[in-house]
Amino acid sequence: MSAGGDISDSISNFFAIRLIHWQRQHGRHHLPWQNTRDAYRVWLSEIMLQQTQVGTVIPYYRRFLQCFPDMQSLASASLDEVMAQWSGLGYYSRARNLHKAAQRIMSEHGGTFPEQVEVIRQLPGVGRSTAAAIGVFAFGKRAAILDGNVKRIFSRCFGIEGYPGEKHVETQLWQIAEALLPKRDESPIERDIEDYTQALMDLGATICTRAHPRCGSCPLRPECIAFRDNCVGSLPTPRPRKILPEREAALLLVVAQGKILLEKRPSAGIWGALWSLPEMQVNENVIEYCMQLGINVRLISRMEVFAHTFTHFKLWIYPLILQVISRSPGHLSPEALSQPGNQWVWMMPEDALKAAIPSPVRKVLLQYTSQTEPLEILAMADN
């Protein structure tokens, strides 16, 4: 194997067969989405596994299937119901796209998941690698994957320098991925494409890991350029470092008769379509802000400030506990909020924890419900 991805057919077949044999002996075989050709289950798992580790995904995957066991149940559910089951898994655009894709499959494909990889790729939230994985595991298609784990394997094995997120590096890695696919007429192993694809996933997740790779157990060690040149730790080339910008926001835990106020976030943007605590700038006057909402409040306490890191910035969150003294007959009255489609709701904290809320809001609510003293103070004040 030579650096730069010049792969001969003999090397390609040798590479694939070695990986397939390794996977059958040492790979993962009992994940809840394995051993099935159910395209719905395969698709769901691949979407959940985008940028999320297997151990985190498994309980969400099982709960999601209990609520939405098939395409029709997912497509007919409300977005609120879908987001509630996704709450805490992060990267919420995946859930919104999953819901859109289910509805499109019902309306455009008669409820049958499309088999062609290029058609799968046109579904919302499905990229080139995800479409290939679905095609492989659900339909036995011979398609190449290139997720983060596979990029790491190829970068090390073939000595590919440069950050894999850069276009020219990614193009080179895709060329390698396509060249290494086991050839149908040369591979003597049944279900070779499924086992080969799973082997790449398993090797990257358990052996060729980002930190502390287990090179002694790797079936590719004899051909690995990074191992030969003692540069495993420096490949793949890390993302160019840049300082994340920091922002601040106050989250308002507004309490009235034991219930808290939640606001539906816009579909686009951060925490899109999730229920969240009202948010304002840290330097704003919280009393005046709430008066604009039609509620008169007093500040009970300030909770511990904490940071939540997004992909492109870090958000410092300042949670405030506020007690409602009075409410105008405006849009935040319980009567007004009983109207369907309203973007505000009063909810008991324990019910809010079951709703579609982002992780930082869940953290605030858990901290609030674990502190009995503020709850007692508010209960006495409401009486």
TrEMBL record:
Keyword 4Fe-4S listed? The answer is yes
HhH-GPD domain span: 48-206
What EC designation does it have? 3.2.2.31
Q: Which cofactor does it need?
A: [4Fe-4S] cluster
Please list the reactions this protein catalyses. Answer: Hydrolyzes free adenine bases from 7,8-dihydro-8-oxoguanine:adenine mismatched double-stranded DNA, leaving an apurinic site
**Pfam families attached to this UniProt entry:** HhH-GPD, NUDIX_4
Q: Which UniProt keywords apply?
A: 4Fe-4S, DNA damage, DNA repair, Glycosidase, Hydrolase, Iron, Iron-sulfur, Metal-binding
Q: Which organism is it from?
A: Nitrosospira multiformis
Q: Which NCBIfam families match?
A: mutY
Report a single Gene Ontology molecular function: metal ion binding
User: What SMART domains does its record include?
Assistant: ENDO3c, FES
- Gene Ontology terms describing biological process: base-excision repair; mismatch repair
Q: Which family does it belong to?
A: Belongs to the Nth/MutY family.
Q: Which InterPro entries match?
A: A/G_AdeGlyc_MutY (IPR005760), DNA_glycosylase (IPR011257), Endonuclease-III-like_CS2 (IPR004036), Endonuclease3_FeS-loop_motif (IPR003651), HhH-GPD_domain (IPR003265), HhH_base_excis_C (IPR023170), MIG/MutY (IPR044298), MutY_C (IPR029119)
Presence of keyword 4Fe-4S: yes
Q: What does this protein do?
A: Adenine glycosylase active on G-A mispairs. MutY also corrects error-prone DNA synthesis past GO lesions which are due to the oxidatively damaged form of guanine: 7,8-dihydro-8-oxoguanine (8-oxo-dGTP).
Q: In the record's cofactor note, how is the cofactor described as bound?
A: Binds 1 [4Fe-4S] cluster.
Instruction: State the protein's name.
Output: Adenine DNA glycosylase
